[in-house]
């Protein structure tokens, strides 16, 4: 009986790790029903593609820096990106019995990502049970941490949830 329990626990942990891996992949990479090995191969391809992009951008940045002798400082103006909330990051990761969402936004006061919209998406649209919610402001960055219970982590598309949450910016 102990072997069966340990095997079940191992499989649950592997399912959580696989869900975490899938959440980091672009949505077009995980469409349809795919095996764990397909997800791992997609992750390897995605990492290699990102490395290539980083190398290309580094070369481009170095060229721009070398061609520019003048320091470039842009005057502070209210651009369209400042009028919207600046959701710097939305991280969704599985934890035992559910998911944890950490949202950090550094927008203008009053333009931060509204917690009510986040909770609306989680509770009303996704049908999740929010068990913990905490918010704090540090160095001008508002950080929301929300934990929600999930019966079956495989029924939730974490990348789709991340996209829904990123649409919560005020007008």
UniProtKB/TrEMBL annotation:
Which PROSITE patterns does the record associate with it?
BHLH
Q: Which GO terms describe its molecular function?
A: DNA-binding transcription factor activity, RNA polymerase II-specific; protein dimerization activity; RNA polymerase II transcription regulatory region sequence-specific DNA binding
Q: Which Pfam families match?
A: HLH (PF00010)
Would you tell me the protein name for this molecule?
BHLH domain-containing protein
Main localization (coarse): nucleus
* Keywords, ordered alphabetically: Coiled coil, DNA-binding, Nucleus, Transcription, Transcription regulation
Q: Where is the BHLH domain?
A: 1-50
The cellular component terms of Gene Ontology attached to this UniProt record, alphabetical and capped at eight, are: RNA polymerase II transcription regulator complex
Record-linked InterPro entries: bHLH_dom, HLH_DNA-bd_sf, MASH1/Ascl1a-like
Superkingdom classification of source: Eukaryota
Q: From the Swiss-Prot or TrEMBL record, state where the protein is found.
A: Nucleus
């Amino acid at each position: 009986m102990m072997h069966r329990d340990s095997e079940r626990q191992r499989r649950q942990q592997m399912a959580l790790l696989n869900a975490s891996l899938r959440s980091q992949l672009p949505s077009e990479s995980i469409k349809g029903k795919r095996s764990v090995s397909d997800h791992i191969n997609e992750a390897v391809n995605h990492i290699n593609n990102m490395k290539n992009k980083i190398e290309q951008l580094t070369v481009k940045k170095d060229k721009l820096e070398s061609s520019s002798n003048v320091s470039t400082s842009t005057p502070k103006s209210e651009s369209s990106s400042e009028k919207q909330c600046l959701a710097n990051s939305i991280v969704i990761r599985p934890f035992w019995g559910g998911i944890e969402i950490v949202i950090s936004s550094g927008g203008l006061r009053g333009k931060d990502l509204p917690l009510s919209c986040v909770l609306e998406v989680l509770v009303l649209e996704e049908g999740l049970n929010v068990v913990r919610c905490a918010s704090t402001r540090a160095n001008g960055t508002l950080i929301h941490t929300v934990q929600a219970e999930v019966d079956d982590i495989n029924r939730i598309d974490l990348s789709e949830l991340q996209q829904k949450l990123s649409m919560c910016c005020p007008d």
